[in-house]
Amino acid sequence: MDRLIVPLLIAFFPFAALAGETETPKPFNLAKINSAKDEDEPHSTVDGRGLGQIYFTCDGELYSARHDAKGWQAGQPYKDLPVRGDVRSVFVHFAKSGVSFPQTIFYATNSDAEKPNDRGNNFDIYSLRRNSASGPDFTVPAPLHSVCTPADEMHPWLTSEGKLYFSRKTKEGWRVFVARRGKPDQPFEKPVVVEIPVGFHHTTLTPDGKTMYLEGPLPGNRWGLFRSTQSDGKWSEPEELKSLNNAEGKTGDRSPNLSRSGSYLYFASDRPGGKGGLDIWYVSATELGKPK
To answer: Are residues 263 and 44 in contact, defined by beta-carbon separation less than 8 angstroms?
Structure first.
């Protein structure tokens, strides 16, 4: 399938021609979207035809930008979601491959109608369904009750097997959790912690669910990108992507997000060469080499 869409990818994405394993990955800056502000938490829905959009936060506010035959369009505040409070770490799940609607949107929010400014003290994960692109065609937002606690839950990622990976800020620090469900219309079961060290979180998984990229702590109170693989139901110790991480940014590299096909990795970084602050970058996943 990927072989069939490679010519289209190259037409829509100039960087697609650079695919192939290299010693030093060459990430590209989303220059039409980035600004001197902080762009973070990217989530791309662009498909093999080069159609779709990317959701991201800009100084904490939710934005989106479309990609079409003309390339990337400028980002705009995303006001469609019928949600009060702040919205973070959007993940869009498509019911059928190659079909845009209906879609389920998972996101983290601190919405609380009983609090001043509709903002509560912690982030919980909610979901809603969007049936079409015309008008405010959304269902009522609903929290994932089995997942939500008084702690912060963020960064949802749903696999094709129906496993919901997310981050929870425990007393020890950020941890990765996973919640399962039997069928798409069933609620998620009680989540369990993934046996990955404290501090590693914000996961994004390949379509086969066997490899995850995540952010983790680096010396100097900085963040970096890591990779873990699954074998016999267990996840390996996260391996730092040393050839991709940049040592010059004050914050570092974080918020990994794989494209729908798993071919490209988007992330946020304040490395040199951007517009200022955190910017969104992308790199061909084949340039990251194979896990050790």
So the answer is: no
